[in-house]
Specification:
This protein has 288 residues and is α+β, with helices and mostly antiparallel strands. It is 52% helix and 10% strand. The protein binds zinc ion. The site of zinc ion (ZN) has 6 residues, from helix 6, strand 4 and helix 7.
């Protein structure tokens, strides 16, 4: 009998640990099904729009936020954290509220700090055509000798999401002033967050939202998880749940209620997980 075929050796090969990638996939799947049951989206009967959103959610959950290509340089993040703490939070009616980011007092202050482009905000409900899939956009326009930076936010969304979009577009305004304007004059925010992980200006803009939404103390308390390691899906679930409960309470947002389409509930959940993981990465990398 050949030694290679003895029964004692064969099972050893079958019991070899799965590839890390397979473990990670299983961990992400486990986390996704727990999250979906939390927001009462039935896993068994999902349409194509929801499946599309789930792909984005999975990318967000499995990404290691400390090592995503678009994470801005530490010095730039420190500068942004200063702006959020000293300029943004001090010039809105409620300290730390995303919903107040459109206050005229704040926009006037940012205008003075980061001009010469004049900041103009247009906030309107937009449901026709692309409708809700558009959360907002900015465009730069030169009209005569006036240089404008126009932000449009779609207020047909939930107020919490509107606040996040507004913060994101303000982030582009500040990035343009600190780093320089990119060639594109218009940029749309449509909700696929995984794409943001590749672009420094997008993650900078999202960092403004993350910094405005969570204080360093709250992240210290919740625990900063930036990477889903095998066996850690329950920890990440608990952190996201904590963040969701807090944001939900502040903005009266209940994703488990059926009146919102399932695809949007998944999208908002993805958005929350993204901002939370990014916030943790900012805390870990620069301590802000
Ligand atoms: Zn953007």
């Amino acid at each position: 009998m050949s030694a290679a075929l003895t029964p004692s050796q064969a099972p050893a090969k079958r019991l070899a640990p799965p590839e890390p990638a397979a473990l990670e996939t299983r961990e992400v799947d486990h986390l996704v099904s727990k999250l979906l049951s939390e927001i009462k989206v039935p896993f068994g009967s999902l349409g194509t729009r929801v499946l599309h959103q789930l792909a984005d959610l999975k990318k967000i959950l499995s990404a290691d936020y400390m090592h995503v290509p678009g994470l801005p340089q530490k010095s730039l993040l420190r500068e942004l954290a200063q702006v959020v703490e000293k300029d943004i939070k001090q010039h809105i009616p409620t300290y730390g509220s995303l919903a107040d980011l459109g206050s005229p007092q704040l926009l006037g202050h940012l205008n003075k700090l980061f001009g010469p482009r004049e900041l103009e905000l247009r906030a309107e409900p937009y449901r026709t055509g692309a409708g809700l899939s558009l959360r907002g956009f900015y465009c730069r326009a030169d009209v005569g000798d006036k240089h404008k930076f126009v932000i449009f936010v779609n207020t047909a969304h939930h107020p919490g999401a509107v606040g996040a979009t507004l913060g994101h577009e303000l982030g582009h305004f500040i990035y343009g002033s600190l780093v320089g304007e990119k060639a594109a004059h218009t940029a749309f925010m449509e909700g696929a967050f995984a794409n943001h992980l590749l672009e420094e200006d997008e993650l900078f803009a999202d960092s403004l939202v993350a910094l405005a939404a969570y204080s360093p103390e709250s992240i210290k308390k919740i625990g900063s998880i930036t990477h889903l390691k095998p066996g850690s899906s329950d920890d990440l679930f608990n952190s996201i749940k904590f963040a969701y409960d807090r944001i939900g309470k502040d903005y009266d947002l209940d994703l488990s209620k059926g009146k919102m389409a399932a695809a949007w509930r998944v999208r908002y959940l993805t958005s929350m997980a993204h901002f939370f993981k990014l916030r943790c990465a900012l805390y870990k990398s620069v301590g802000v």
